[in-house]
């Protein structure tokens, strides 16, 4: 119980307690979101991005399977009609999954047993344990889009399960992001392949929580091969980050952004 409380406190301090982070986050995500837009946070955790996106005037669907953090999200945003909290995981198909929870470091809780095995050998994960398992419902991005509309932006940070989440999407989105972890390099490449399967995209990379673009390959959006080359260069540094993607040469047509609209 003590480790669990300490883990929650650690997440709150990490994601809400750093001065200036919310300001930087609003400035960064303002490139993708504005008033009235829909944003989807897959792996919402402690809700720091939900908070920033609401400050931009966006409507938010926060997807989070961890029961402790579902309670936190409802505590923080339960009275806000522009925030919908979904206590579920996302995957390739509807059903259920076993969520492995790390009490001390809940930010790395995951439904991917393969990812846990992969990162367990990394020096940064030597003290991480996934002590608890809980069965959680699983839905898909396609079902979420059908219910809530096409989001202007979708962030996916689910500890190695990103490719499976993207496998539940059958159309490109205007913009999305997924996590890159050097210790699980192949998982990011699998997620990239899923995005490219939806059509050609362009990409940028942002190192972990900096809210700045990596410019080592120039101040521009990259194609898939250029992104892979960039990640190969970043990999030895061992620092994680996020890959941002948007369709190349077009935007999702407005008629499919709001279900039920003629």
Automatic annotation (TrEMBL):
Region (Disordered), start-end ranges: 241-262
Pfam families per the UniProt record, alphabetical: Methyltransf_21 (PF05050)
Domain Methyltransferase FkbM: 41-173
Protein name: Methyltransferase FkbM domain-containing protein
